[in-house]
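Q: Hi! First time doing this. I have a protein sequence and I read that you can turn it into a structure. Is that right? Here it is:
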Amino acid sequence: MKEYTPGDGMAFGLGTHSIDQAVVLFGRPKSVTGFFRTQRGIESEVEDSFTIVLQYDSPQKDLLVTVKTSITTPMAQQLKHLVRGTKGSWLKEEQIAEGHRPLEPGFGKESAELYGTLTTYKEFDGNSQHFDEATKKYVGKYPSIVGRWLGIYENLADAINGKTELEVKAQQSRDAIRIIELARESHNTGATVSWK
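A: Yes, that's right. Below is the predicted 3D structure, encoded as structure tokens:
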């Protein structure tokens, strides 16, 4: 059986990206609950899937953020984001890019079938939403903003050369790692763990 050592597993791999997004959007949580699983049918303490639940203090006391990553799913289009709020929701599936390079024109631009579905009580974008009589909500496919991850490396080089400050601060990375550590503690004890 493969034993867990700190830094192993999906949480420290692909999970760091979605955990970092939660930290950027919502900040440090009040508490963390973690569930780690091995779903590949092998004996291992190293997880290939996880669920981390983040709870917050006021004014975000009603906010509950769930971060999940799994490599075992039959879905052709992997679920990327699902955001639910009192005034609307956003569902986004993962972009699939095969063989494209970051410097190619159009890199990161998704086809219309991969757009997320935006549902709101009030119209947000008349060009992409329509009023649905059955649900009494505004619904429509909404395009993602094209990202440019190459910029993080350019920023790093400029910061090293003293031209600018780092956009991603060390504290942000530290907080994401701390969330993983607290989630692991929660998993091992079977209890929600306070931020400490």
